[in-house]
Amino acid sequence: MQTEAKAIELFVQDGTPAGVWYCPKCKRVGGDLEMVEQCCEPIICSVEGCENTCKKHWTVCEECRIRRSQERCNSVWNKAALIELSDAQHLLCPEDGDRLVCHDTAITMAEEDGVTRFYDTSETPLRLHADAILEHAVDDWYEDAYSELVLAGAVESLQKVLDSWCEENPHSCWFEDNARKVDLSSHAQEDNGVG
Ligand SMILES: [Zn+2]
Ligand SMILES: [Zn+2]
């Protein structure tokens, strides 16, 4: 009944089944017949209608994974509200490794490379947290060191200093805002094949 690459049941010397199976192809032994039977079988993609084989440890083939991720990107893009370029802060380009670009660069990218999809970003100003700084600073002191600093009002007084420093030294990071998109298709040249 067993074909050449199928699992073979192993027996102990007196003829009683050992309860383990052996794959003649990769020499793996295991107590779960189903697993040993499939250890060397190609894994077929679990996406309905797809018959591609998957890489080891995957249940979905590469083609389907790329397609699904493209579908996810498209659905986020389709749901986003369209805004004018002038209403956007910095722009983030998902087609170019989430690169942060200014308005002029975005227009150049659309004109020269046909890259037309951008998301707006929202500004997150730098904020320093006194509790984290103090907790870290006394990490290897004695056990109640940090609690004592808290009781002594150190967190509050340091936070005031930090807040005023941040106000005088503004720094920001711009994070992608997936809910707002800028479509620069109108800047792309027609022969770039942007559809
Ligand atoms: Zn095997
Ligand atoms: Zn597939």
Concise synopsis of the structure shown:
With 195 residues, this protein is α+β, with helices and mostly antiparallel strands. It is built from 6 helices and 8 strands; from the N terminus they run βββααβββαβαααβ.
**Count of alpha and pi helical runs:** 6
Give the percentage of residues in beta strands: 15-25%
Low-pLDDT runs: none
Taken in chain order, the helices and strands follow as: EEEHHEEEHEHHHE
In whole angstroms, the N-to-C terminal distance is 56 Å
| Global geometry | flat
Nearest-integer average pLDDT:
90
Number of strands: 8
Ligand kinds: zinc ion
Radius of gyration: 30 Å
State the major sheet. Answer: 5 strands, mixed
Helix-strand makeup class: alpha+beta
This entry's quaternary arrangement is single chain
Give helix % range.
Answer: 25-40%
Structural commentary:
This protein is an alpha+beta fold and 195 residues long. 33% of the residues lie in helices and 21% in strands. The strands form 2 sheets. The chain has a 5-stranded mixed beta sheet. Strands 1-2-3 form a 3-stranded antiparallel beta sheet. The longest helix has 18 residues, at 62-79. Among the domains are: 1-41; 42-79, no CATH class; 130-168. Bound molecules: zinc ion (2 copies). Residues 45, 47, 50, 52, 60-61, 63-64 line the site of one zinc ion.
